[in-house]
Amino acid sequence: MSLEGQFQKVEEKLFQNRYMVDSGQPHIRITPHEKPSKNLLAMTHLCPAGCYSQAESGQVELTADGCLECGTCRVLCEESGDITWNYPRGGYGILFKFG
Amino acid sequence: MIDEKFDAIVIGAGMAGNAAAFTMASRGLKVLQLERGEYPGSKNVQGGILYADMLEKIIPEFRNEAPLERRLIEQRFWFMTDKAHTGMHYRNDDFNEEKPNRYTIIRSQFDRWFARQAQEKGAILLCETTAIELIRDAYGKVVGVRTDRSGGPIHADVVVLAEGVNGLLGTRSELRPRPVASQVALAVKEMHFLPTEVIEQRFNIKGDEGAVIEAAGTISNGMTGMGFIYTNKESISVGIGCLVSDFAENETSPSQLLDAFKKHPSVAPLIAGSEVKEYAAHLIPEGGYKAIPQLFGDGWVICGDAGQLNNAVHREGSNLAMTSGRIAGEAIFQLKSRREPTTAANLALYKKMLEESFVLKDLKKYKDMPELLHTQAQNLFLTYPQLVSKAMENFVRVDGKPKIDKEKDTVSRFRKARGTFGLIGDAFRLARAWR
């Protein structure tokens, strides 16, 4: 099945969700790098919440506010040291209304 | 923070954790349950289908009070190509029985109810509390946990890790490995709200009746994956999941994959005009029997998704979670009532009881299936759906061509795509993995 055509922006989807954002305390951090690893770069497509993006300078950046806490980036990028991964503090982060 | 010592600390208030907490608390054990979300279920995601039998063994009268959406009377399996689906629908009025076999549920509601049942039996639930470290004694036995709340460690005879597939506590404590990309699927899901009567008309159901669709084929873009459409009372859960390793290799956006599934001509009319109220993502353990880690040790046991206890073939996860939680609770209670310590040797009882139950028997039966689904993804999810669809079209479309030619065309397409030996090999591999 081809994935061409109009798609809804992920940010629009996230607007439906309920979050308790822990301001200034991102639970996932990218390790400073010059050139992103293959897996880290793949996260710019893979993250279901679209938290990862590539800057013009080539580095991968992260805004974790819309994180759905699925753990995909942890599975792919934690072991290599590309990122450090924690859950948000108790009570913070995504709060599924339905789940 | 808490000075008293507990018989057990349960990490997580999902299916496995709630089952374990309920089982132990209702037998008089002192149970503390920790949940990092604001309320039980606030971090949990499921399709989701609940199998009654497994909950009945924990709370026999659950049907009177649990928040259930629809009891399922129809199951559809769709084999999909870009424009078509070849379906098998199983509908049976016998499912309209006094004690229905399966229901759809909404996890945030269900988990709150389930956790409350454990609390009513005496379990203490602390929400907004993340367990961050296991406490061990001088001999290495787990004797409690430290949390992200202020205060010292909390002590217990045993820690039940029901923290989900991506839980950090077990992996950071090196009780189990971090999930591997080829052994977990990433699923995304949307909740589409529609008036009850519209849902009933579109799915040919009435009252509390429900129908569910499981779909596989070109919708997963050649990746090992499946889509699903489940009817709730006033909403339809629509989702799709594929192995993380496949997503990484294909650099596919899960959100766009779901959008494409929603636009499929067989799917779009079912959800047309709906209001989407939530977008969720979650990992599903898919490694099967061979991916199950050590499930017990000195002062600890692992239940549910954290132990990879998920039957990918039958799409059963939460009932294995519930059952493993219940069995862990029963095993711990047996030790307690005999005043035996919670050593690894004694907690092996949990694993033994799991082996005697359907949980490990089923997973053992399908031990070769995850590998087959993974290595044969192109054939199973792209080639065969297209062949089947073309065969159906040849059979159904009436256009003046002699039927013998059409049959020959169908057979030659199968032979061309997979070769005679390829076809036999595929059948053999599937039969062997299914055995």
Distance between the termini of chain B: 52 Å
Give the name of the CATH architecture of one domain in chain A. Answer: 2-Layer Sandwich
Mean pLDDT of chain B: 95
Structural class designation of chain B? alpha/beta
- Number of helix segments of chain B? 15
How much strand content do the residues of chain B show? 15-25%
pLDDT < 50 stretches of chain B:
none
Quick recap:
The complex is a heterodimer of chains A (99) and B (435). Chain A is an alpha+beta fold and 99 residues long.
Describe the protein's architecture and organization:
The complex is a heterodimer of chains A (99) and B (435). Chain A is an alpha+beta fold. Chain A has helices spanning 10-14, 38-46, 72-77; strands spanning 19-20, 28-30, 52-54, 60-62, 83-85, 93-94. Chain A has a domain at 28-87: Alpha-Beta Plaits, CATH 3.30.70. The longest helix of chain A has 9 residues, at 38-46. Chain A is globular. Chain B is an alpha/beta fold and 435 residues long. In chain B, strands 1, 2, 7, 8, 9, 10, 16 and 17 form an 8-stranded mixed sheet that branches. In chain B, helix 1 (15-25) links the parallel strand 1 (6-11) and strand 2 (31-34). Chain B is globular, with a radius of gyration of 23 Å. The mean pLDDT of chain B is 95. Chains A and B meet through helix 1, helix 2, helix 3 and strand 6 of A and helix 3, strand 11, helix 6, helix 7 and strand 15 of B.
List descriptors.
heterodimer; A: 99 residues; Alpha-Beta Plaits; 3 helices; 20% helix; B: 435 residues; alpha/beta; FAD/NAD(P)-binding domain; D-Amino Acid Oxidase, Chain A, domain 2; eight-stranded mixed sheet; seven-stranded mixed sheet
Protein topology:
The complex is a heterodimer of chains A (99) and B (435).
Chain A (H helix, E strand, L loop, with lengths): L9 H5 L4 E2 L7 E3 L7 H9 L5 E3 L5 E3 L9 H6 L5 E3 L7 E2 L5
Antiparallel strand pairs in A: 1-6, 2-5, 3-4
Chain B lengths: L5 E6 L3 H11 L5 E4 L14 E3 H5 L14 E10 L4 E7 L10 E3 L2 H14 L3 E3 L4 E6 L5 E6 L6 E8 L6 H5 L11 E10 L2 H8 L5 E9 L7 E7 L3 E9 H7 L3 H10 L4 H4 L3 E11 L10 E2 L2 E3 L15 H20 L6 H13 L1 H8 L3 H7 L1 H20 L6 H16 L1 H15 L1
Helix pairs in contact in B: 1-3, 1-9, 9-10, 13-14, 14-15
